[in-house]
Design a protein that fits this description.
The complex is a heterodimer.
Chain A (H helix, E strand, L loop, with lengths): L2 E12 L2 E12 L3 E5 L6 H8 L7 E6 L2 E2 L4 H7 L1 E3 L12 H8 L8 H6 L2 H21 L14 H14 L4 E5 L7 H16 L3 E5 L3 H7 L2 E6 L2 E6 L1 H6 L1 H13 L1
Parallel strand pairs in A: 3-8, 3-9, 6-7, 7-8
Antiparallel strand pairs in A: 1-2, 1-4, 4-5, 9-10
Chain B lengths: L2 H30 L6 H21 L5 H27 L8 H22 L4 E2 L8 E4 L2 E4 H23 L1 H11 L1 H6 L4 H27 L1 E2 L3 H16 L4 H25 L9 H15 L14
Antiparallel strand pairs in B: 1-4, 2-3
Classes of the chains: A alpha/beta, B mainly alpha.
Chain lengths: 255, 307
């Protein structure tokens, strides 16, 4: 199968420090792909490069067979959406409105339509609202639709971020530590949700600290250490890789 | 005559013009945290463009509100184009510069526009032709003129329209999202540069209407008229809580009323020592008081319907 996303020798330096260098991997379409590594290994930097916040100093990404454009909103329009390690919702907007913002990129109404407000614009607004409600229901927080997002519980905020990202109709959903701060039950529900998302045809890229979650759920895993890719493959294989055990898993079992 | 009621009416009229201008300051501040000091000059251009149109039509014998509306049909697009141009040339290249840079740039644009207007329209005070009806209505011991009624209605309609635009439409949602977190809005597919440009366009359109109304109300305009008006409107925006739409509306109306009440009673209170010509003092006294007592403004809680 052709890969949906390819990292082709991607690298990024900050001053003299190489945050990432020579990163290469292919993410097959329809998979759940894990990206793990110790703190500071460059996982979030990779996400920021992928979504257009930073520009790579070397190499590039190919998405659906073509190089990725530069600006974040263009990347989003191409079909990559993300969530954040530390939740970044539009705090004073309601849950529903947050998801409706995600529909922006797939809808058209502008100033002209808004001022003269012909029927077409009203229909579009109704469609945006209906789809946003569906997505809130999909992630299981439809009953929170009209609540201001910063008042939601932590777990609900995480789900809301996923719903907002799904609203942009991504082909690739990139999740930055979605289980961070969750208890065991919440993490298990998250796992079910990710399977549900994959079942709709969306490819999932998962950065995660929780090795068990990654190994249990991902089809393939890439391991970063000090900005370099040290292993890549199916979880069983990566788990046995001596470099991975030394760099990451080993450190955790001896701790 | 009921002086109190009369000053309140005059104040609300003047205040609704302040509010229209203050909305432009507050929307831009809300989204890029820049005090757009050139905004007063956009109002001035709106007033003078509409004046030019109105003069030509009046010379051909036309009169009445239709003439003002035709003036607006030219002034609004002119000001929108001007606002978009200012944003593109003077602010966008400085988006990532230290915050002082765009502020200086704004002051530069303001001076440049004043001088440009002086070249086009001259340095003298221009008087509006006498084309509007002079009808006055009596209400409870005070009078309100037809011009005042039209200003109040126009401002109310525009403010309601803006409120709906921001709270109920796709564009307004994108504006609010960009104001809260431009980086995240971009990642969710909102073209933030485009939203910022649209914000300037909307603010400049309101400024054009305010300019035309202020010209029709006071029957006078010149290339420096935007300075004091802009400063007052900015004061109104700070008074209401800069970044807050409701705050700009409330601050504008409040400032107009306070200023007019001050002007109306000043002579009496000081036994003629200080006259109504000191009314501008009130605006800035208010600004100082607000900044000392409530720096975030009346409605300036963080994050409130900010645009």
């Amino acid at each position: 199968m052709t890969p949906l996303l390819r990292a082709l020798g991607v690298g990024k330096r900050f001053g003299g420090l190489a945050a990432l260098s020579e990163v290469r991997f292919d993410i097959p379409e329809g998979s759940i792909y894990g990206l793990i590594g110790p703190n500071g290994a460059g996982k979030t930097t990779l996400f920021n490069l992928l979504t257009g916040i930073y520009t790579p100093d070397e190499g590039h990404f190919e998405f659906g067979g073509a190089p990725l454009p530069g600006k974040p909103h263009d990347v989003c329009a191409r079909g990559i959406a993300r969530t954040f390690q530390n939740i970044r919702l539009f705090g004073s907007m309601t849950a529903l409105e947050n998801v409706m913002v995600g529909r922006h990129v797939r809808t058209r109404a502008g100033l002209f339509g808004a001022i003269f407000h012909p029927a077409g614009e009203r229909d579009e607004e109704a469609a945006i609202r209906a789809r946003a409600l569906e997505l809130l229901d999909f992630v299981g927080i439809a009953h929170r639709a009209d609540q201001v997002s910063r008042q939601l519980s932590y777990g609900d905020q995480r789900r809301l971020e996923i719903a907002r990202a799904l609203a942009t109709e991504p082909r690739l959903l990139a999740l930055d530590e979605p289980a961070a701060g969750m208890n065991a039950t919440e993490t298990a529900t998250l796992g079910t949700l990710l399977q549900k998302i994959r079942a709709t045809g969306v490819t999932v890229l998962l950065i995660e600290h929780d090795v068990k979650l990654v190994m249990g759920m991902c089809d393939r895993v890439a391991v970063l250490e000090y900005g370099r890719l040290i292993a890549e493959g199916p979880p069983e294989q990566v788990q046995r890789d001596p470099r991975v055990i030394e760099a990451y898993l080993g450190a955790e079992t001896t701790a | 005559m009921d002086i109190f009621l009369q000053q309140v009416i005059n104040g609300l009229v003047q205040g609704s013009i302040y509010a229209l201008v203050a909305l432009g300051y507050t929307m831009v501040y809300g989204i890029i945290e820049l005090v757009n000091f050139a905004h007063g000059e956009v109002v001035m251009v709106g007033a003078l463009v509409s004046l030019s149109v109105i003069e030509r039509l009046a010379a051909r014998g036309y009169s009445g509100w239709t003439v003002i509306v035709i003036g607006l049909l030219l002034a609004v697009p002119a000001c929108i184009a001007l606002g978009l141009g200012i944003e593109r040339v003077a602010y966008r290249p400085l988006r990532k510069a230290p915050r002082l840079a765009p502020l200086i740039s704004a002051i530069g644009v303001s001076i440049a526009l004043q001088q440009l207007a002086a070249l086009i329209w001259g340095r003298n005070y221009l008087h509006y032709p006498d084309i509007l009806p002079k009808t006055q209505y009596a209400i409870g011991g005070a009078v309100i003129s037809e011009v005042q009624v039209v200003i109040l209605i126009a401002a109310a309609v525009l403010m309601a329209g803006l409120w709906i635009l921001v709270q109920r439409t796709r564009l307004g949602r994108a504006m609010r999202a960009s104001a809260q977190n431009p980086a995240v809005a971009g990642l969710m597919g909102v073209d933030v540069n485009r939203i910022i440009a649209t914000t300037f366009a909307v603010g400049s359109g309101l400024a054009a209407v305010a300019g035309a109304l202020v010209g029709a109300y006071y029957n006078v305009g010149n290339h420096t008229m935007g300075f004091l008006l802009g400063l007052k409107a900015f004061t109104a925006a700070v008074l209401g809580g800069i970044g807050s739409l409701g705050g700009a509306m409330l601050g504008g109306l409040l400032l107009g009323v306070i200023e007019n009440l001050g002007a109306g009673y000043m002579g009496k209170l000081t036994d003629g020592a200080v006259g109504s010509n000191y009314s501008d003092v009130f605006a800035f006294l208010m600004l100082v008081l607000v900044l000392v007592l409530r720096p975030s403004g009346l409605l300036g809680e963080r994050g409130i319907e900010k645009v």
